[in-house]
Amino acid sequence: MESSERRRRIAIAEASDKLWNGEITRSAFLQICARAGIGLAGLATLSSPRRATAGPPTVQEIRATAGPSSAIEPSSDQHRFLRDAGRTLSGQTVHVVTEDTPPSLATREIMKHEFIPLTGIDVVWELLPLDRVLAKVSADTARRAGTNDIFYLDQAWVGRFAHDTVPVQKLLARKDLAYPGYDFDDILPALVRHIASYDGQVMGIPYDIPIHILLYRRDIFDRLRLPIPKTVPEYLVTVQAIQRELQPHVYGTTAMWKSGHYSLLIDAATWLWAYGGSFFGPGNRPTVNDDRAVAAMEFMRTLAKYAPPEAITWDWNGATKSFVEGRAGMYINAGEWFSV
Question: Would you say 217 and 276 are in contact if contact means Cβ atoms under 8 Å apart?
């Protein structure tokens, strides 16, 4: 690693410490990251970071969702594999650091009931806000400390840390450690290519992938006898119907339109893509002002009539909270909040 790159990574780690100690502003931290060539594509907010709002699954819930190939089932190949692997690896400790989101919280809890007791391998798993994950990765790799074994890398960082990871194909080639039934090729190729690869090399395993999903209040849809919308025009008609019948207590939809926030970009992407648009076109030229993009933004302006006025101050947390509290009939969200 070049000395300049090492200095940039250490600068990021130190800036994150200062941010959380109140010594610098959010804007100053982002400027330091930008100068270092690092983006925070999945960051919800630095002043109020995303955290897993739902509690971890209980043992009963884990067992209820476990299939016949789950390691929690004593008769499964997976159970036997972890038990046998643990004979040579028991007593080892693995350090993991990921963003604090519901998928990581659930995975960590399942691990406590399956992986640790069967293998005897201890796992220290830290759940942190995304910028703190970046600080950990930056400091560890810059100093070659080897403190952590498994990192959560935001897609915007994959290229930066491409030479600090063990290539996935090298791990998959270890037949002696092949988990029964695990099929890496079953992962959507587009996710592997765009989320977990750099320069043609697979750098990691796609994980914690937010997907645009329509969330709706079944009780409201049943009460008003509304069909689930399948197109953009149908979505608007449904939103209007909900608000017409249930206002002022329930809005047709909700949103996360906080100015200058990544959540606003995500909501904009929802409708930009729905209208067939894109952020970039041929030659990587921006296309955010072409006809499709303009139509998408006009649609968002129309939706504003059917969302809580506070939506312009909300990120993921605010939009999710409004939906959970029953203030909206439906909305589309790309996040990890489906456990609510």
Answer: no
